[in-house]
Amino acid sequence: MPPDGQSAAARGVLPLSPDPPGPSALLVFSIDLANPDAVCRAFLDGAKANRTASCRRGSIDLINAPGRLIATGDIHDNPAHLARLIRAAGLLPSDEQPEAPLRPCHLTLHELIHSDRLINGMDFSYRALARVALLKQAHPEYVHTLLANHELSQIIGAGIIKDGIKVVQVFDEALDYVFADEADRVRAAIEVFIRSMPIALRARTPRGDILCAHSLPGLGMMTRFDPTILDRDLTDDDYVPRSGSAHQMVWGRGYDAEQLEDLVERWGVNLFILGHEKAEFGAKFVPPNAIVLNSDHDRGVYLPIDLADPPTPEQAMERVVPLAGGNDD
User: Fold this and answer.
1) Phi, psi of 318 (to 5 degrees)
2) DSSP-assigned beta bridge partners for residue 62
3) Which of 48, 239, 254, 260 has its CA 20 to 30 A from that of 245?
């Protein structure tokens, strides 16, 4: 365990958002994030919830209209934005009606780790991952923790350099600092949680299916990519760098209209909602039917969707909601 007297930030006991969470937040977030037993239990219980939720179908989560969906882009341990997304999804009571019954809607969450907010050169974003694991356990049918390239890279040890920082390394250094001799046990629990994540969320609507995923395979990957990945369980081979279909899917960039139309034919999807790529203004349209969202930076957004009346891709661009400075309803 870390020595007594270290900062609250290092111990991981800061609130999720800059404002102290209300009483309802304690149900999800009351965890000693420096306690290896509590943290491992959060990840293992979150993994069980991922695998046993009734919405799980092989490698994906499957939901049907009617209902509401909050679709998101990369989070990268932005605590204020994560808190707003959770409230927007109705998973925490509003400040105005703290005792009102929850009216949850579906929420996608992906690319949670590898923050640019380092503490003494270390990345403590395992805390966000643990909180989301608890959130999944609390709301297994509504929280959809999608596999992303940064989570996958963390468990397979692949190097990522972001703004000059070796993000896998500084994440590991934070685990070593907080958990010392127990760090490997925590790493193992994190791996179990990440390997339990679905590759996508598929929403069936009256106007066609919506697929939320971190990304899609790039053009150069399609000859090696197995498009049946949505119809089966993931295997160890799927996670292998460059050759595995899950790896290709979460790392893919550079898809174009022809490829999207091919995947429409293969998968029967009308609208793709993705992350992974930079969207300077929070959202980017990739013709003919893909929307890229970012939820991590100052112009980050989310997309609320009425599954009974889903938007066209063009309408989706008009309906995104800014996160910075936004309300939590």
Assistant:
1) -80, -15
2) 202
3) 48
Alpha helical stretches, state H, 141-182: 149-156, 167-179
Residue 207 · residue 310 · CB < 8 Å:
yes
Can you read off the two tokens belonging to residue 246? 């899950």
The ranges of the chain with pLDDT < 70 are 1-29, 93-102, 325-329
Cβ 284 vs Cβ 292: under 8 Å: yes
3-state secondary structure of 261: helix
| Arithmetic mean of pLDDT over the chain | 88
Q: Give pLDDT, residue 157.
A: 82
Residue 24 is predicted with a pLDDT of 41
Radius of gyration of the chain (CA): 19
Copy the structure tokens of residue 161: 């350099």
Q: Where are the domains of the chain?
A: 31-322
CB burial class (10 A; 0-12, 13-18, 19+) of residue 313? middle
Task: Tell me, yes or no, if the pTM score tops 0.85.
Answer: yes
CATH number attached to the domain at 31-322 = 3.60.21.10
Chain centre distance of CA 25: 19
Instruction: Look at the chain and count its residues.
Output: 329
Q: Are 45 and 215 in contact (CB under 8 A)?
A: no
